[in-house]
Structure formats: structure tokens, C-alpha cells
Amino acid sequence: MKKRGKWLTAMGLAMLLTLQTPVAAVVEASTDGGIQQEMTVENQKGTEEDRDESEVQSEEEQSEEEQSEKQSDLEIQKNDITDEERTEVIPQEASQMSESVKKEQIIYTWKYDAEIGWQLWKSEGEEEEKICAPGVYILKDGIYYLGVYETEDKEVSRIKEEEPEQGVLKEGMVSVTDTTPVITDEEKEIILQEGTYYFSYETGGEEESQQPRDGKYLTNTWVHPGEDVSVWYYVNKEGVQEDPALHEGPMQNETGYFYLDKQGKSQSGKFKINGVIYNYDGKGNRSQIRDGWQQDGNNWYYIENGQQATGWKNLQSNWYYLNPQNGILQKGVFRDYTGTLYYADSNGRMISGNGWKQIGTAWYWLQAGGALTTGWINTGGNWYYLDPNTGAMHTGWYQVNGSWYYSDGSGMMQSGGWINLGGTWYYLGGSGAMYTGWLNLGGKWYYLDPGSGAMRTGWYRDVATWYYSDGSGAMVSGGWLNQGGTWYYLSGSGAMYTGWLNLGGKWYYLDPGSGAMRTGWYRDGATWYYSNGSGAMQSGGWINLGGTWYYLSGSGAMYTGWLNQGGSWYYLDGNSGAMHTGWYQVNGSWYYSDGSGKVEAGRWMNQGETWYYLSGSGAAFTGWQKIGNTWYYFYDDCRMAANTWINNYYVNSDGAWSDTATVMPGATYNYAFPTAQTKKGLQVKDGMEDDASNLGVKHAVVNIALNHVASGSGIEYQYQGKTYYMNTGYIHELDRQIKELHNRGMVLTAVIVLQWNYQQQDLILPGARSYGYNLYGWNTQEATGKQHLEAICSFLANRYAAPDMGVVNWICGNEVNAWKDYHYSGSVGFDQYMEYYAQAYQLLYNCVKHAYSNGRIYMSIDHTWTYNRRANCYTSKSVLDRFAQLMNQKGISDWMIAFHPYPAPELQSDFWNRTLDVIDSENSPIITMANLSYFTEYVKKNYGAGKRIILSECGFTSVTNGNDRQDIQAAAIAYGYYLAEANDMVDSFVVHRQVDHSAETQQGFHLGLWTCKPGSTETADSKKQAYDVFKYMDTKQYMTYTKFALPLIKKNSWEQAVSGFNPAKFT
Q1: Least confident of 307-311, 412-416, 543-547, 999-1003
Q2: Residue 965 DSSP one-character state
Q3: The pTM is what?
Q4: What would the DSSP string read from start to end of 627-680?
Q5: Helix, strand or coil for residue 747?
Q6: Distance CA 789, CA 784 (A)
């Protein structure tokens, strides 16, 4: 332990000698130094000669009587301290101190605290204080250890709060380090070696009068480290506990004899010490094992002259063998030190004899000296095999030097011929060794399994070649073999043929795996062949199988693809080789072959009321084709279009289009489709156009109801020779709103819907004319109703697609997959419903295209992609896919999609926290902004990148579960917008709504950028947090207003949140 300066010795402690009378100790201040000594306290069992008393008191301050009283207070062991280790400096103050410097008397007292224990107190004059510093204290009557009192009792507040650290006298095991204080009651510093010490002290009398005395730490003795009395540690002359591993083995102390393991644990059992065996009980007792036989568990030993005997021992004319390593008596089969085998009975007596001897169930051949014979032995002209490890005679199968042999029940080895064991035949050579592999006997070949030696019958394989042996084991060769109705061919060597075989000018095909002869169709590599029932391959011409024609080449290979025979073309299926008749498709083109398979080419063909045109190659025309001087249009299924519009062109009843104009005949406007700087859009409330402009809206959506446009009087409009009237007030209001939005540079979208109107029921499908639904299907079934709809749509398209109005996007209906809510068409099935909607779409499409050649017309679906949320809905995916099929049939290729990616659930705007219905798959039940890319990729993959998508209704509520969460709404708008900006299939992201609507807020939907004034339907009251976020999210200030959202969506940046995020677009 490191030495300490005078700051430590100044603590100068003394020790009480009695309980009643405090002992005075004198501490003399010194400036010249002190006395250094390395000291240990003698163990109580030490001799008086090893002790040296030391009295350290000033003769000037104490009388001879006091010195006599303290003569034996402290014993310090000094005989182990060398002269070099001892340094003594005698203070000079004893004779030179000034008379003005007075020595002060300090008294130390032990006091007992019932809660804590013995504590040391110091008094100087009238002042008294408790000693709390832990450490080793060397006082006049002994050495003590003062530790820190610890308690787990939380109720002892006096200890925990008023006096958080208490010193208490301790005994037992103590760890001393270089930081443990070692303090004397004089100006001396004692250096203790680091290690573990064992402290003790004496007491006497009643509890509160048990005055500590004779404190010490143990030396040169054995101690228990804890409560386990079976563990012993040794403390050396310095009092330091030594590593118990150093004392592994026998130990003796005043309590008895012990045998210790490496952990100091007392062991029980027999242990050999200096050649003598002792039995320890682990409790301090041992006894020497006597001469003669001694048993330990299941093992026997022989003790001779106190020593354990080993090797051969002859006792009372019997030989015994004791293992040279451990002295254990050997029984049964064993080897002695020479490696010779012997057998001893259950008592360990060696068995001897000369010849066969049965021991238990085994037979042995004993020599005269008792040694067991091993290996081969010939007796009586017969060979026997004795196990080289046990000496036991073998019967049955056994292996010697890699060869297998068989001995019968008597042990006699069998040889020279066939042997049948358990129904299996084996062949043994003259030496008795079992044959394996091929064996020729009497001109016949047999195959003996290389592993077991068993004779094989039936099919078997040698390396990579298959062979067949009959029931006798003789191998079959040289011709056809029929097994279970299947034919095989075996060569002269017996090897089974595989692959092609030519016999008698005919080709046969033997399966490469099984060797079975193939009949019917089969494939070799990538080529198909056909063999008849005899296995002979067919070739060189047409073959009819089951009413289907095929063509086989001279090599027998089946033809596929195009075949020209006699100047006529035939098509043989690319997979099956079957000759096609009727319609079929090759590499994307359709062809038609007559009943004989000949391809029709270079002519018109009529089937029912449908016309087709087959080109010179036979491929049916699709798309626009010029035949002679006339243009025709053919659908993807090759049908000729008639009496309909094809994009911008009209074809007559003959399918002919003769107009050479590049736009739809009669189209009024042909200006370029406008573009916007960003995709930010809003459903603008009528009358809040200025607010929309202030918000920087680039795309605006307005709703137009067909039933509101129609009127019994008002603005006249001529359509197909008939006059229709449009509602003057409604139209003028639309004029104002659309004009203002257009003048502010916004790209405009109109949503065209049909609501209930008692006076205009002719606009509604006949089967749907029942009051109580939100929106209705358009009447395309009755001529008058259809023409009325066409007149209204023509009026709207010509008026609002004009360049000074600028409505370029037109949406047919709203969320039409919700058929009962938003496009009620009566009680019809899915296919009929979709046909009605496709007709309505085509009606609007034709009217818009007549007015504006570049106008875009959209079908509308919501976010329930593959999930039917209720019985009155279809999935959006099924509606989209069926709609695409119908548009293809109607020749409309430039149809577009208006999609509504609401969150799921709709009343929780944090779409980034996905539910189980929102997954990363094109088959996800729900499509939200979180997985929108899977929807757009599906559209791109199936319908092409030209299908433009507008997110025409994106709604996020600011109230969730009754809690105002404007931050979540604002974050959803920003995050959703950036996802849309990064998606190349999306043209706009339109927020729904500008102002909360009371009808929606009653259902929990607070979707606006403004709150609604209480008591009103849709009057702006106050701006929400989303207002400024929407305003600035596509400007260079976007981070100032949107960075709050990143922790909410658990992202560090927008670049991390959105793949392809490009702020340069709006900064």
C-alpha cells in the first residue's frame, strides 16, 4: 500500500482499554517526521520468543506507573523486518520544544449503538466526535478494522439522511488495497501488503458491556473464508490470504486432517500420499488403508505394506492382475502390460486351461499359461476365427483384413460355394472370403452386391450402367426384355440401352433415365417425336392423332411454326405442334386458317356482322390501315370499327374515313395542352378564388352537376337540330369562377356528375330513377335522354374548353367503383354496370374531343384497390381493368385516371403509419400515398406510361379521435405532395377541401385548410396550420414550413423520406 503523509497521521487515534474508564492517549505534534515501521500482529498461537513488545509513549508526559500499565497493550511482530526495511527518526521536540507549545490529551472511547454496533468516539477536552473514516486502526491493545455501516432498511432515515456514512467495528475477511488507510495511534505509518486479511477481537460480559479488546489479524494459520466450514484458506506470516490452489492436497491443522482441492474445499474419499492410501471423511478425520483387499465402490485394490499393489499377483495359488496405472483389479477380458489377452472371473481370478473353454455364452481357446488365443486357428481340419480384441470365437458374418467371412453356429468357417442366408444367396471362395462384384460360373454371369455380397436379381446398376438378372441370378443379355408391360433392350454385355436404337431399319427411342421404350409423343432435347405402339418412330409427313394434324420431318422431328406445303402456308402450334384452324395469334398478330389449315391472306373476311381484313402475309390488320385509297380502323381484336369516333377521327358505317384533316372533324379548339410549374392543386370553393391565388394553387378543380346545367328555359343551345336550354344563373356563376381561376394561371379540371332532379329524370338511367342516392348513372339507353346528355356535355365542352376558359381536364363521375353511392345505375350486375359507365364516358369523351382535340377525359376510382369495404362497392382494380377492356373495344386508347388516395382509416391522416390493409404490393387491399407507387407502376406495366393520373381528391382530416391534430394534417399534405411530385405518372396532387364542410365535420372529416365558421355550412373562419404549409411547400421556403413534419414521419430529411425528391423544382 502506498505511504501517506502527515495528513493521515494527524488523525492520531488511540484505543480504550476498559469499558468504564476512557484511556488517555497523547499525540505529540512533530515537524521533523515520525516513525515508519512495517508491522504484522502475531497469531495467537505464536510463541513468546516471536514477540517483541514496543512501548511508544513519551517519558516526559507519562509516569513509570502509566508506562507499566500499558506495557502489554500492543504487541507488534518485528522479527521478520530487516534492518533495511526499518527506518526510525527520533523526534527532537522532546528536549527542544518551546514551553509555549502544550501537549493536548485525546481520549478515545468505544460506544455501542444497538442499530449499528461498536463505534469509535474521540474526545479532546469537552469536545467529542465520532470517528467514521474506514480503515485499519493499529492501537495499543490491538489492531482493528473500522468499516462502513450498510443497511437495506429504507426506514432508517437517521442513518441515510442525517448521517449518511457510519463507521462500525467489523471482523472477518477484509480486502486491503493500496487505497485502504492504515492508521496508528502514534506518528507512525504502517505499510500493509495488499491482499485479504482476517480480523478478530475479543469481547466479554453482557451485550452493551462487551468492550472490544485484543484486536488482531491472523497469521500463519488456516481460516474459513465465510460460513462454509468445509473451505479452508491459508494466511501467511504477513496475514495475507494465499491462493488456495497453492495448497491443493493434504493439510493438517489443530482441527484435524483434510484433503483440499484447488478452491480450498475439503474432499472426502481415498487419496494416495507418498505411496500410502488414506481415507478422508472431509470433516477432519482420516485413516490409513490396511494391507489386503480393499474395496472402493465397485473397484477392488490390494494393499501390501501400506502400498497399493499393481501388476500380476499370486495369492493362494490364484493369479490376479492389478492395473499398473490405478491398481484396480481386472475382471473379464483384459490385456496385461505385454499386450497379451487374459480372462479373469468375477472375483478377478485368471482363468487358465488348454483348448476350448466356454465362458458365459462365448467360446475361447486358452493356452496353458492362461493367455487367450486370437485370430485364425485350425483345429480338427476346420478354421475358426477368434476376435483380436476379446478372444471370443466368431459366428455369423465378420470382417478380417477387408474381407468378409461366415462361420456357422459352431464357429466353423464356411467356404467354397453358394450359401443361402435368410433367403439371400452369397458366394464364398475357397479361402472362405465372400465374393463381391461380377462372378462367372458355368458360362453365366452373376452380380454380387459390392457392399453386402448379396446376389442381385431384377434391375441393378453397376457404376452408371443398368443390368437385369433373372430369378436365378443369371444376367440377361442380347435382345428385347419385357418387364411389367414395358420393353427394354439389353446389349450383348447385358448393358441396358438408352437413347436412340436402330434395328431392322427402324428407329426406337429408349428413355435416357429408365431405358423404357417410348411410344406416343416424347421429347428428345427440345424436339418432339412420335412412335407407334410397336415403338417404331414415325416420320416424313402429316399424321392425324385424335382429330388433330401434325407434321413430322424426315428425321421424325415434329414441325412447329410456319410450314409451306404445296404453295400453301400452315401454322403448327409453337408448343404442341398441332395444326391451327380458325383464329390464332402469332407474335402479336392474328391469323385465320380454314378447315384444312391453309392460311387465309390478302382479302376481306366477314364473320357474322363483323369485318376483318387479312393482309398478304395472312396477318389481320389492327389500328389504322389504308386499303386501296381508303383508311379504316381495326380494333386490337382485328374487328373493323364502324359508325364511331376513333380518337379524333370518325368512321362511317362502311368503316371508311375519308376526311384528311389531322384533328377530329368539327373540333373547335386545337391549342397545346397547358403545363404547370408544380403539381400543387386544390378543390377551390366558389368565391374564394383570391385565396386560392394567394395559396399559389397551380391546379384547380371545380364540380359541375349536369342536372343543374339543364333547365326548362334559359340559354338556348342547338344540338342535332333540336333546341336545349341551359340554366342561366348556374352557367353565369360557373363562367365567373372558371374565368377567374383561368386568369390566375391555374390548370383547370371539371368533375362532371349527375344528381337527382325531379324535372330532369330523363338524364338518369331508366332503372335508377329512385330518389335517395348521391349521384346517378347517365341515361345512354334511351335516345331522348342520351341526346339530352350529349347536348349538355357538348355545351359545356364548347363553352369551357375555350382558350379563354381553359378547362382541359374532364372527369366522368366520381369514384364510380362505389356504384351505389356515386354512380347508381339500378339493380344490375357488374358487367352491365361497367358497360353503362363506359357508354357515359364515351359520350363525354366524344363531346370534349369535338370541342378540344387535346382535352383529357378521366375515369374516377377511389383507394379501395382490392378490398370491398362494403356491399355497395366494387374494387377499384376490378373496375379499372374492366374499363380498360371496354375502352379497347370502343377504340378509345387515350383514356386517363382520376384517383383518390385517402388514408386508411380515413379519419387518421398519418398515412405513413400503415395498417395491415396497406402493403407494398400491386395487390394491396388499400392504396394510399404510402404505397401509391405500386398503383402507378401497375398502370404503367399494364396500360402504358401514356396513361396520365391526377390525384383529384386528397383529403386529410385535422381532427383524429376527437383530438385536434393540425400538425398531423399539415404533415400529411406536405409528405403526400412530395410523393406525388416524385412520381412520373402523376400530373397533379389536389387537396380536398379549401374550407371544412359542416356535413363532413359531423362525420369527423375536418379536411379544409380553413376551419368552418360555427353555424354555417362552408364559411371560412380561421386558417389551420396546413394553410401555410400548403402555401409554401412548393416554394424556396419549403423547409421553413415543412421541417416540423420530419420527426412526425420519423425521417431526417425529405430526401430520405421521398425517393427522387428534387427541391430544385420549386427553389
Answers
A1: 307-311
A2: -
A3: 0.45
A4: ETTEEEEE-TTSPBP-SEEETTEEE-TTSEE----SS-TT--B-PPPP--SS-E
A5: strand
A6: 9
